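Handout, section B. The chain below has 378 residues.
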Amino acid sequence: MTMRRMIVLAAGGTGGHMFPARALAEVLIERGHGVALVTDRRGQGFEEMGNRVSVHRVRAERLGSGLVAKIGGVVELVVGTIQARRILREMNASLVVGFGGYPSLPAMAAALRLGIPTMLHEQNAVLGRANRLLAPCAKRIATSYPHVAAVRAVDRLKLHLTGNPVRPAIAALRDRPYPAPAPVDTIRLLVTGGSQGARVFGDLVPEAIALMSEPMRRRLFVEQQCLIDDMPIAEARYREIGVNAELAPFFTDLPERLARAHLVICRAGASTVAELTIAGRPAVLVPYPYATDDHQTANAHALEAAGGAWIMPQDKCDPERLAHRLKSLIAAPRMLVQAAEYAHGQGRPNAADRLADLVEATIADPHIPKTQPTEAAA
């Protein structure tokens, strides 16, 4: 047991940053450390932890495209950094861990000004822009993929492969076997993607399924996240083609739906890919084409290369192509079983513990390693 320390987590407001930060917080608290979170007004996800984690919100703003927006963004970051310095002093922080996103910048900048060691966690297969700015000053960089793009050669010795921690409800699926479908079984198709994916999939998936044969359509049960405004049209289309479907803007029981899914159609965000690999479920990945540095495509390629998914770029994913893909997979369920096995093999169920180990190692010896780690990201 290491001596109790105060560890500050700095994360952007989206779930992709917050999920791994919360998973790390849970492990650090179990190990007897104190944990605080610094984020901006959007940051959510720590409410259920109550007073076990102190949450602090600072000013932060993305740098816009115009001169006025850029100046405003810089001013907000400066104010946020001043706020974060006060917080870090009061916390007597031993280490600040950045999870990316522009709201992580004030706390990380304040730590550097105060001489507090810092480390980073990168969820994607491409180093994010905030983490790219901070990488030269970070002592260690935890990664979710063996190969991470946009890392300077001088920073590669800092890389440590830990994996991307997932929510406890997803981690609990690790030992749930893939429900291999028999030739006459119902095929459960799960369609997710948040608002950015829901609008595309709300039109695309029903039209693709309409192009399949009637016997094949009758075997399908579709569970699909869909925007409220798009639900009436999508529900009517599914009824018209004779497909059983359950549509909702958000599934509160998504982990259970993932557990029983035979195939998932989804985006390729870092948390989504990590959850697929923990559960071991095959997927058709349609990367969000406007993601920063096209990092979703990089995430998708990593899983496809391992045999656990099939990529369909959005600009080439029309109903005809998607229908062809679905028909080929349903007609050969062995392909689904094999992809599920390969996806499962990519999962890192101990990612939160490995990340906590790296945190403690950085506190104990915050110097950059002189030799490449045994399991380092390249």
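Note. Residues 368-378 have pLDDT under 50 and may be disordered. Compare this with the example in section A.
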